[in-house]
Amino acid sequence: MLLSSIDQMPSSSLARYLDGEFWEIKDAFRDAISKSDLFQSSCYERTLDQNRDLTADRLYHILRQPVMKEHLKNQLKEKQKGFINKSMSITEVVCAADMNTGVKLGVVCGLYGGAVNNLGSPEQKIKFYLPVSELQFTGMFAMTERGHGSNVRGIITEARYDQPTQEFIIHTPSEDAHKMYIGNAMKGNFAAVFAQLIINGESQGPHCFVVPIRDENGVMWPGVTVSDMKHKEGLHGVDNGILIFDNVRIPRENLLGKFGSVSADGLYSSPALRGNRFNAMLAALTPTRLGLTVQAMAAMKLGLIIAVCYSHSRRQFGPKDQEEVKIMEHQTQNLRLMPHLSAALALTFTSRYAADLMDDALCKGEDLQSNRALQALVAGLKAYSTWANVACLQDCRECTGGMGFMMENRIPSLKCDSDVFVTFEGDNMVMLQVVVRELLTQYTKQMGNNLVMGLIRNLTSSASDSLRTSFLGFSVDKVGDLMFLLKAVRYRERVLQRSLASRLYTKVDKNKEEFFMAWNSCLHHVITLAMAHIHRVTLEQFALAVQDCQIKEDRALLSKFCLLHGTSLVYQERAWYLEHKYLTPTTSRQIRSQLLELCRSVKDDALKVVDDFNIPSCCIQAPIAGIANPRAEWAFYPKPEYPSSTQPLSKL
Amino acid sequence: MLLSSIDQMPSSSLARYLDGEFWEIKDAFRDAISKSDLFQSSCYERTLDQNRDLTADRLYHILRQPVMKEHLKNQLKEKQKGFINKSMSITEVVCAADMNTGVKLGVVCGLYGGAVNNLGSPEQKIKFYLPVSELQFTGMFAMTERGHGSNVRGIITEARYDQPTQEFIIHTPSEDAHKMYIGNAMKGNFAAVFAQLIINGESQGPHCFVVPIRDENGVMWPGVTVSDMKHKEGLHGVDNGILIFDNVRIPRENLLGKFGSVSADGLYSSPALRGNRFNAMLAALTPTRLGLTVQAMAAMKLGLIIAVCYSHSRRQFGPKDQEEVKIMEHQTQNLRLMPHLSAALALTFTSRYAADLMDDALCKGEDLQSNRALQALVAGLKAYSTWANVACLQDCRECTGGMGFMMENRIPSLKCDSDVFVTFEGDNMVMLQVVVRELLTQYTKQMGNNLVMGLIRNLTSSASDSLRTSFLGFSVDKVGDLMFLLKAVRYRERVLQRSLASRLYTKVDKNKEEFFMAWNSCLHHVITLAMAHIHRVTLEQFALAVQDCQIKEDRALLSKFCLLHGTSLVYQERAWYLEHKYLTPTTSRQIRSQLLELCRSVKDDALKVVDDFNIPSCCIQAPIAGIANPRAEWAFYPKPEYPSSTQPLSKL
């Protein structure tokens, strides 16, 4: 098998800037992937078992990399500077190479590893995780049950303490307690299982236990049954299964006891209040949730590289009796692709910002759970990014026509593999409700104890009216100013927050409606606010990243995409702005013209940007993006060059 | 293998109404499919060859049905009453059973059959199509080339007349002339090939030729090469390939000569002007284009059956200390699903209307090409319906969470199989341009010869201002009135049309911009107008169907969904209405409240509607929709009953 040539060109300044502080780690993984036979070829005729075996081989290859081994060792320690950022860098590069491997890495190191390292004692880390870094075994993460996916608090798997033997008895009381969709279920050796801890018949709420599933020879632990869920839309290399426990006995030491432990004689103790305990455990998974944003972003970048390159090679239609134009010149083509490209850039900077916040908090020894802004950001980013990815890949598929439907051109498998991101590890609709819960709680804390009243006071007393006034100072031609866009998205978030608080207050406090019912009747409002929050943060972070960029040309280029991102966000919600008279009919139309004009003006720059995503050609694969493939010569289009020669259309 | 029980219940009045005039044909196919072993099981471990063989077997099973044989015989005759409507009925039922079979049926009977029967002589029909109805051979349709997919007018395959032998020499002059994505390429025997007819070195434009590809033993015709394009995102049972012709000789009689024929001594004659000829040929494919709308609609209905049933079984979250609520009760869940359901109903009536128009025209011996309104409708419906389907299935997938990602629950394969509809047989972006071209031409014809000026005259002299006035007569509470919604969508179409005409006039006539450049700079406007046109027609046709419904209860139910469809259309475009001051901020908010309220109010009725789609359980397959599957017991949820017991939330 022929190894694809590793890109020898030194990275451009923009590529380095997009890679961020840990570019060396990324380069090390790019190199390892480009040099490995395992990542060179794609094949669409593998059986499920062959796909799973290949994914396992790829996972081990990644785990064997020296830089990875060192990283995993660091995971066992506390307060490792930049640990989250490094993890995200690795995640992005591995996911770009193969989403299956990335997801499986996330299960083994992020979820199982996250549970053991964040909820376990030093001894437990050494016993249950150190061997993972030494490739002795792998783990899985068993939280979701058949009856409770989104509402995980309602899980019913039991863990009864049996004092005479000092063991926990893990048990599945009903079909609805089956642990479902468990990744690595058919291959992993240990599971981090969430179950209701019961001592002397009394429940202490959900806790996490390490349960042996099978030994290195595949012999099952007594009482454990695993069944295979087999075929999915994508991620064929990830083995998802169902775990059923029939009075499975595990030693008392297998309870991961950071937020609740049981003494030999059956006494329960916990540093956390009962209501907070489960949230505190879930907070340990915050980095994994951010990982999903990075995974979605990797898929977006790949799709965009392929669609942008092809759009600059393929020609169709044109002025009479002249050469046909590149399809990128078609107004609708650049209008569909460029906003996604700006969103991918916004996500690059915003996910790094979130990782920085987490790294800072962890280094200071702060717990992540009580950082409401961070929790809101990470939950919201998960929803925003995974939906942005679905929309982006769909447009990439459509913008590449029949070529984009062919497996050899990579987009179909990216779509199928990443589609599940919008519902797994926290359904997006649930994530957005988390955002608003965190935002409301944050303000309540600042303002006193009454959730709703606190929020209203905060809002009315603060900036909303002055914001409104400051808007009135804008002249019409300021619509093209980034400050105008930033103020617009901030204004929208504030107003949505105030009106939601007011509605909830009326329903719950005044009309005494049941809370769930009241909340549910505002759910569309809740979701809208959550998205507005994330939109605002992505635009702010993009703007800051532009400001921080030291190379003048790069800053100029990023600045255009940042303006496009903001314009696109305001354009999407222009109905709301018109309803609130923040935009006039005239300025609203200006926003549309501005969007069309910006998409047109960055379409050639897009080639530089996708090039600077710096993804090795063995990961891109698509012949329509200039990666030759002897199996699909019919799909080959040479890679377009940047800067492209000026097209007559560019002057339109 | 166990045959699934055929639904013995007599159809409800609504089911009959949704089925339409040709319900007996639909029932005959439902019965044939339900009774056949071939359609009972799904399997996700087949190789490409196995998938293709199964699809071929299924196709033959369908072709062998007595009612199908009769239908195909009728295809050879002219002016068969209801032929198009019957074809659409068959297409819908077959596609619901298996999209691969439906697409392959479309290739063999719709495209190849359409070409032979509409462009050929009686003798050619008997020679090249009668045997298809007798299962002696199958055909394929070779228009698209590597270099020209959307812009088919630019195809470069050559057909040179060789007078000494009285043969045409079909030749592929370059790689860009390869006939690509050809369905049935690996199995079919004859191809309807579009090529530039060249006589004595002079080109007469594209014509269609029947070219033998391989005989019944698989022996290739001299000079023909076929290569396999293999793996796609979906439609794994459809064999797409590449055809290459190396000076392939075919008899003179193989030119399908309705719009241009060649005498033995090389004299060309045509009843059509050169500029119109190719369009006239393409018009023969109008029914196939409508078929795509029906295929997309079948996929939508299946997705909705599954998502609606599961949403009424699955429970998650709820009021404190009470049973969790059905996920359908979540505001965002019914908000996401119900508009798709109303769109599926709108498409049911609108596609039937389009088929009626075609049947009428064909019975009267009118040609379809010059019926501009019909061409605009069919092209627009293709784009609208296939995008509606992609959006619908994506929401169905997300609304069914992890279950919806599992192959056993059917949604993933529906998504992957129907995704290509948005770009094949006319990319949607191209289709929408066709809509506007037809609309503009239609008005130009009415108004005199100057395209743009005619249009402007037509518009300014007519209804736009009175429309505006009539709006001002509406009081605010009329937003909930269907008439308000109908007037709104009509107003929007007119205004968009007038403003587009005015822009084109300024650019082309006044500023002398090159036409393609001018058109391209208005492309977003063009697309917007085309969608507005189709929105308007779907709402009108839905409203008419409500009016025509004879059973009071059914009419009442359809009326709610019709109002929802109109509300959803206006809600989507409320920014435009606000920009044009057709909605005030207050009425715009009312539209949103109305949308939320309508979605809530029809969520239980949705169960009756999806039941009345009348799709056999062997086609639905999904265990989460109550179809038991021993292979995936973990996915089974019993079918919810209608009318569901009143939920407390329904009173919200």
UniProtKB/TrEMBL annotation, chains A, B:
This is Acyl-coenzyme A oxidase. The active site is at residue 425. Residues 284-440 form the Acyl-CoA oxidase C-alpha1 domain. Transmembrane segments: none annotated. GO terms for cellular component: peroxisome. The keyword Oxidoreductase applies. One of its GO terms (biological process) is fatty acid beta-oxidation using acyl-CoA oxidase. It holds the Pfam family ACOX. Keywords: FAD, Flavoprotein, Oxidoreductase. InterPro entries: ACOX_C_alpha1, Acyl-CoA_Oxase/DH_mid-dom, Acyl-CoA_Oxase/DH_mid-dom_sf, Acyl-CoA_oxidase, Acyl-CoA_oxidase_C, AcylCo_DH-like_C, AcylCoA_DH/oxidase_NM_dom_sf. Its cofactor is FAD. Residues 141-248 form the Acyl-CoA oxidase/dehydrogenase middle domain. FAD binds at residues 144, 183. Belongs to the acyl-CoA oxidase family. One of its GO terms (molecular function) is FAD binding. Residues 484-625 form the Acyl-CoA oxidase C-terminal domain.
